Every structure is written in structure tokens, then in C-alpha cells.
TrEMBL record:
This is L-alanine-DL-glutamate epimerase-like enolase superfamily enzyme. The keyword Cell cycle does not apply. It comes from the Bacteria. GO terms for molecular function: lyase activity; magnesium ion binding. It comes from Sagittula marina. One of its GO terms (biological process) is amino acid catabolic process.
């Protein structure tokens, strides 16, 4: 039985000409954390750890992986990622509680889980979604994301030209946005769709006022109009106007099950790099479909996590769409540009094996700010 013998992690930062703004903060560069796990037979796999926030988070997560998590992973069997995922969730709980850093620990474990499933699929010489039991597919539906409402008049036509047929616009910046959303809807072509994302930017009353103003529009969804941790009663006050979406800021089977049980989310959006990896998010995606919701993976990172997210959507199935950030990101495009991957509203999956990544591209290597390696 092969055991995990080596873990490497890289923090990378790529400069960008135009910052990426949300209702709660601005990204002034594009960070990423990549993880490579190798067993004592020389097999390896890749994963990605969420590192967008806080601004200094990428380097911290590399150190957290090397100093706190890797000692619990090295020497463990490499053939059952789901079992190791649950073991790490249990073992790291008190550490995360002690320092109040549940997010970073969960994100590191998510990256390791992706890498272990990638390793298994590479051993079997198949794509990850096939190794996880899905029928082979060559593409999944996708939508253009990360579009600031102030830039939407320019970016939506650009995304349309790239090949997208669905778009998600960030709102929550100014009081006149309902009228601007209405104008964007009027500018869509036949068959195109529009979703909105407030990034938890409103209180319940502001969210209700906005949703009342756009309730007659055929929007795909309204994502995180209020904080993800607000009680069900607040979410229920917003229901019935526009389909509600959320999940990127929910973590753990219990919390996802509770939110699904409340029946307020029409679209459930766990992020494979923030919590769960394949092991956790696959279970949540299947539970969402069983509950009558649509699984739409959240992702706003670099190239390895995007590939993993696409493989996960191909595994879960259903009518969901892959989130593809259309803001400039060299750490994503080094693994394959968006324009080369999108066709007629669909994202083309790589041929594998696994996630189809053998090494970090040269363009990514030039952006490394920190690296750690830990051996058994």
C-alpha cells in the first residue's frame, strides 16, 4: 500500500492592471496556493488552496500546510482520500478552534484532498470525474463571473464574444443598481441569462428592497444578498422574488444539510478550494440535487482549482453551470486560457489523466513568492 511521502506547496502572486472589486474589498493582485502530493511509489497529484482573502493569506496558508497539516498527512495511506479528509477534519478541529482559523485549515485540507483524488485518477489513467464514477463527458455548461456592474456594459459583450451565454454581475455598490440591472437584462440576446451576486453586502432590509425592485425579471439567481451566517428567518424573508444562491461561505456537512433543509437556496455553491475538496463537495452536490436544488460550484481562483471544479461538476451532474471568472488572471490562463476553453456556453474538460497537470507552467513559476517542502 502506497503512503504519502512528500508534500510541496507554493504561494504565487501575479500583478494585474485592474483591481478586482467586491462589495467587501478589493484584490490588487491575483494570488494562488498550489499543492503537490507524492506517494512513496512516485505517483503524484495536484490541488489548489483558496487564497484570495485576506490579502496576506497565500503565504500564511503555505506555512500552515507545512507546519500544522503536513505532519498529519505524511505516512498516511494514499488510496482513500475521503477517509483521510474526514480524519483531518476531526484532528484539526481543536487547532482551528484554538486560533480561530477554521477557514485556513479547511482550505489547506481541501487542496490536499484535490491532490489525492488527482493522484488516484492519474494512477488509473482517467479523468477525475470518470474515476469518481461519472460517464465520460467532454464539456460542462459554464457562465462568465466576476463582472463588476460598473464594467458590465463592456465586459458582457466581451464575454459573449469569448463564447459565454450566461453572465453573473457583482452588485451592492450603489443605490441605483436595480435600474442598471434592468438595462442589462434588456441588452441580453435571446437565450442568454443573467445572475447577480452581492457578496453578502446588504442587510436584510436593503436586500429585500433590491429584490422587490427586480422581482419581475427572469434572473437566474441572486447570490448572497445577505451574510451567509444569517438565520433562516432572514433568508426566508427574501425568498419568493428571485431564486436565491449561496454556499461558498458555508462549510461542513452539518451546515450544508441545515441550509438545504431550510429550503431557501435554489442554487447551492460549495467551493472546492475553500472546504471539502472532492470528498466534501461531491457529497454536498449530490445532497443538493436530492433536495431539489441545483448544484453550481463556486470558484474564483487559479487554473488547477478551476479544472478541479469542472471535474466536480461533471461528476455531480444536473443542470448546474461552472463558474468562470473572466477578470484577467495569469495564474489561471497559464493552465489554458478561457477563450481556448469556452465554446457555445460550455467549458471543455481536459483529457486527463487526473486534472491534466504535470507541473507548474513557467509563467506560474515566475510568480512564486514562497515555497515549502515536507518529506516523510
Amino acid at each position: 500500500m502506497a503512503c504519502i511521502a512528500r508534500i510541496e506547496a507554493w504561494a504565487c502572486r501575479s500583478p494585474i492592471a485592474e483591481p478586482v472589486a467586491t462589495s467587501f474589498g478589493i484584490m490588487r493582485n491575483r494570488p494562488a496556493v498550489f499543492v503537490r502530493v507524492e506517494d512513496d511509489d512516485g505517483a503524484f497529484g495536484w490541488g489548489e488552496v483558496f487564497a484570495n482573502w485576506p490579502a496576506a493569506g497565500a503565504e500564511h496558508r503555505v506555512n500552515l500546510l507545512a507546519d500544522d497539516v503536513a505532519p498529519l498527512v505524511l505516512g498516511q495511506a494514499a488510496d482513500d482520500p475521503a477517509a483521510l479528509f474526514q480524519k483531518l477534519e476531526d484532528q484539526l478541529y481543536i487547532r482551528a478552534l484554538q486560533c480561530g482559523e477554521f477557514g485556513p485549515f479547511r482550505q489547506v485540507v481541501a487542496g490536499i484532498d484535490q491532490a489525492l483524488w488527482d493522484m488516484r485518477a492519474r494512477r488509473e489513467a482517467v479523468a477525475v470525474h470518470v474515476m469518481l464514477g461519472a460517464s465520460p463527458v467532454i464539456r460542462v455548461p459554464a457562465y462568465a463571473s466576476g463582472i463588476h456592474i460598473d464594467a458590465a456594459d463592456r465586459v458582457i459583450p466581451e464575454a459573449r464574444d469569448t463564447g459565454f451565454r450566461a453572465f453573473k454581475v457583482k452588485v451592492g455598490f450603489s443605490p441605483d443598481e436595480a435600474a442598471r440591472v434592468r438595462a442589462l437584462m434588456d441588452g441580453l440576446n435571446s437565450g442568454e441569462q443573467l445572475a447577480l451576486d452581492a457578496n453578502q453586502g446588504w442587510d436584510t432590509e436593503k436586500a429585500k428592497t433590491f429584490l422587490d425592485a427586480v422581482a419581475d425579471l427572469p434572473l437566474m439567481w441572486m447570490e448572497e444578498p445577505i451574510r451567509a451566517d444569517m438565520p433562516a428567518s432572514d433568508w426566508h424573508r427574501l425568498a419568493g422574488r428571485v431564486p436565491l444562491a449561496g454556499g461558498e461561505n458555508i462549510a461542513g456537512f452539518a451546515d450544508f444539510s441545515a441550509r438545504l433543509g431550510e429550503g431557501v437556496l435554489s442554487f447551492v455553491q460549495p467551493d472546492i478550494a475553500k472546504w471539502g475538496g472532492f470528498s466534501g463537495c461531491l457529497a454536498v452536490g449530490r445532497a443538493a440535487l436530492s433536495a431539489g436544488a441545483t448544484y453550481c460550484p463556486h470558484f474564483l481562483g487559479a487554473g488547477i482549482g478551476l479544472r478541479a471544479s469542472a471535474e466536480l461538476l461533471a461528476t455531480v451532474g444536473g443542470p448546474g453551470l461552472l463558474e468562470v471568472d473572466v477578470n484577467p488572471n495569469p495564474l489561471r490562463d497559464a493552465f489554458g486560457t478561457v477563450r481556448d476553453s469556452i465554446e457555445d456556453g460550455h467549458w471543455r474538460l481536459g483529457p486527463g489523466p487526473g486534472l491534466g497537470v504535470s507541473q507548474l507552467p513557467e509563467a506560474v513559476a515566475k510568480c512564486i513568492t514562497h515555497r515549502r517542502e515536507v518529506l516523510a
